Amino acid sequence: MMKMMNRVFVxxxxxxxxxxxxxxxxxxxxxxxxxxxxxxxxxxxxxxxxNYLSSWDFTSDPCNFxxxxxxxxxxxxxxxxxxxxxxxxxxxxxxxxxxxxxxxTELTIVPGRITGELPAELSELTELRFLGxxxxxxxxxxxxxxxxxxxxxxxxxxYNQLTGNVPWAVGSLPALTNVVLCHNRLSGSLPAxxxxxxxxxxxxxxxxxxxxxPGFLPVSLQYLSVSQNRFTGPVDxxxxxxxxxxxxxxSQNRFTGPxxxxxxxxxxxxxxxxxNLFSGPVQPFNEVAIQTVDLSHNLLYGEVSPLFSTVQxxxxxxxxxxxxxxxxxxxxxxxxxxxxxxxxxNFLTAVPIKPTEVIPVSSSLxxxxxxxxxxxxxxxxxxxxxxxxxxxxQCMEWKG
Length: 400
What we know:
Blueprint: H1 2-27, H2 31-42, E1 44-46, E2 68-71, E3 74-80, E4 90-93, E5 106-109, E6 113-115, E7 130-133, E8 139-140, E9 154-156, E10 161-164, H3 168-171, E11 178-180, E12 185-188, E13 200-202, E14 207-210, E15 223-225, E16 230-234, E17 247-249, E18 254-257, E19 270-272, E20 277-280, E21 292-294, E22 299-303, E23 313-315, E24 320-324, H4 327-334, E25 340-342, E26 347-350, E27 364-366, H5 392-397
């Protein structure tokens, strides 16, 4: 009997100790953080199919809530929304009380239907390193007060409805490594980015305009995409400085001037400079090791360089190239080493292919609408039109 009583006593004491620890753990959460989480939860709603907020029961320890991570008595990371692939996410707004979580180092909101503006109170999160609020319906402007968050490394506000300029104060953040603002409605000129650790800058599909002066982008950049904007001006002094780039997409803008020869030696796999106003001859220094080069829909002229023979997918169509297609380029195409060669809508006068030769099934060639009779008939994109050869008057008038 005595042993049984001892066991019961021990069991009661263990239960009391556990309960006490739970209550103690709950009690030490900073009151400001506790109230901030309550306000944040009231401004959000689970969308159909999401059960993220079901664990946010404020009669228990908030540090056990889904997406809440604590260190000591403070919340240090907040991942709002259901992280499961395909989950519906949250709707609502971002409550300004978010600024009370002053020890946050990470704030993310997964795809959903969060609306409204980014609260200016984000500037109070001076410990924040990672800010990721993408694929929602955030509107308004990027707060210039983010310049107070000097430890920010990653800013991902992509796929929202943000408008206005990127504040120059944001460009001055010293520790940035990743800036992803693509697929918004941002406009105006680009600020100078001073961070010497910035490696990724993704601004595609916005309404930015103006030029990008040399020195506005740090030499540390490895990924640069500004496609589908309205940028203008030359890049021949800007790009040679960015020789660490492994990805470059300047397509669908209004850049002008020559294409610097040095970029064909960059360690990249895809070079997209299409649909701009680049002009002049194109002269790489050495054989081009880039897998895909797209220079189409520009104002480039001169002869096609044989140094492009090592490119697997080469788009030179819709320019003003003249002369004969290099023999080395045709040889590699016939050997199946060049997978795609688009030369349509230029002023080329010859291509060393015999009418009896057969283009490999694995390769695509388009030559139509040049200043020559096509030696072979090959399928071309629909946008190339139906005319096989340029009018003689155009070929006589064109002087390169």
